[in-house]
Every structure is written in C-alpha cells, then in structure tokens.
Design brief:
Number of strands: 8
CATH architecture of the largest domain: 2-Layer Sandwich
Order of helices and strands: HHHHEEEHEEEEHEHH
Largest sheet: 4 strands, antiparallel
CATH topology of the largest domain: Ribosomal Protein S5, domain 2
Distance between the termini: 38 Å
CATH class of the largest domain: Alpha Beta
Number of helices: 8
Structural class: alpha+beta
Shape: flat
Radius of gyration: 19 Å
Strand order of the largest sheet: 1-2-3-4
Helix content: 25-40%
C-alpha cells in the first residue's frame, strides 16, 4: 500500500499544516501522529514495516535529501509495437545513518522520478557508521565500522573502512548513496559491470544494509570469492 506523495519541505508552517491534514492508514502511522514514536530508530527497533511515506517525512522533519542517480528508457515489444517507459533510480537519505534506494517506472520522466522517491522513502533502512580503519581510530562516525559486502545483478563490491580525510574512493552512483547515508571516508572495491548505475547503487545500498544484519556463514564464502 502506497500513500500520496505530500510535500513537507516548504517551511515549518507548511510542514505542520501538511502533518495536521495527514490521515494515517496504518497502525504505525497512527502511533507516529499520536507522538508515541518519535524517531526512525524506534521503528526499526520494534521491527515495524513502513507503508506510508509521510511517516518518514515527519520523523526526519522534512530534511530528507533526494538525488536522482540515473534515468533510463525501458522498451517492451507488444503486438501493437514497442512500448517505451522511463526508469528512474533515486536515492533518499538524511546523512545521519538512514538511506533508501528505489526505482520508479512511468511513461514520463517526472512521474517516474516522483514514484522512485516515494518507494525509496518506504525502503529507507538504518546504516551503522563508525571508524573501522586501523590507520585512524578516531572513534567518530565518518566511515563504516568494518568491511561490508554487497551484490546486485553482476555487480559485487566491498566497502572498506578508510581513515579520516580520505574521502569517498568510489564510483559516482556509489558516492551518491554513501553521501546520503552519512559516510565520508571509504574505499570501494568493485567487480562486474559497474556502468549499470542502477545495479551499482543498489549493490552499494545492499552492502550498507548488512551493517545491521547478523552475518550468515554463507556470506563468508561469498567474501572469499570476491
């Protein structure tokens, strides 16, 4: 279930007005509006499923940033001929440890981007940050806490903790996702067809999401293959 994409970014007064007009359709939405849940962290601690974009907008106080990673044309052959649609890959994040990536498809570019933003808000996930580099040890939240592995399509990658001041040693699509997650310094090692920006961004996002998951023994096998 997806809700309408309301704008919460026109200023404090417009934000409050939009929130007052919002009518939650889920239990989580009602808890947020009643003030029982006041942060995104509480949602993931209680393992709730986000089904309304307004929940994310309100808990981030309208400061969620959005970036379009790529816009591609998808063609499908039918009896009537070729049908073309636009596929927009979008990332959203608050640069404080929460980021989401999604794709939106539509006949026009604008609606495809808006649809991608809406789905990305519903897909937002927590990211664990830290200082896992043996060259730094500053104990600030500027990098990843340990090596992370991600995969999407033919792309496999590793995110390796970097010392403070290093910057983002990664491709453009990965940099967008890392910046929105609040990662400032990291090395990235990639394998596969990284020119596919959509899969590249999703592989980076999948790697970051693993920072909050328990590693399964099969993951060690994949890591060795990389």
């Amino acid at each position: 279930m997806m809700s309408k994409d309301r704008s919460f970014r026109k200023g404090p007064e417009s934000f409050r007005d939009a929130f007052e007009e919002w009518e939650p359709k889920t239990k989580l939405g009602r808890l947020v509006k009643e003030g029982q849940i006041t942060s995104l962290g509480q949602i993931f601690e209680n393992n709730y499923d986000i089904r309304e974009a307004e929940i994310v907008e309100f808990l981030t106080e309208g400061e969620l940033e959005e970036e379009v990673i790529s816009v591609d044309i998808c063609q499908r052959q039918t009896d009537a001929g070729e049908k073309s649609r636009f596929k927009a890959t979008v990332a959203v994040g608050n640069k404080e440890g929460f980021v989401g990536v999604a794709e939106g498809k539509h006949k026009e570019v604008g609606p495809a981007i808006r649809k991608g933003i809406l789905i990305a808000k519903l897909n937002i996930a927590p990211i664990r940050r830290g200082c896992g580099s043996w060259e730094c040890r500053c104990n600030t939240l500027h990098s990843v806490p340990f090596k992370l592995v991600g995969k999407c399509g033919s792309i496999r990658l590793e995110l390796i903790p970097g010392p403070k001041g290093l910057g983002l040693v990664a491709g453009d699509a990965a940099k967008t996702v890392l910046k929105l997650a609040g990662i400032e310094d990291v090395w990235e090692k990639t394998f596969g067809r990284t020119r596919t920006s959509s899969n590249f961004a999703k592989a980076t996002w999948n790697a970051l999401k693993r920072s909050y998951k328990i590693m399964h023994p099969i993951d060690w096998v994949e890591r060795k293959r990389l």
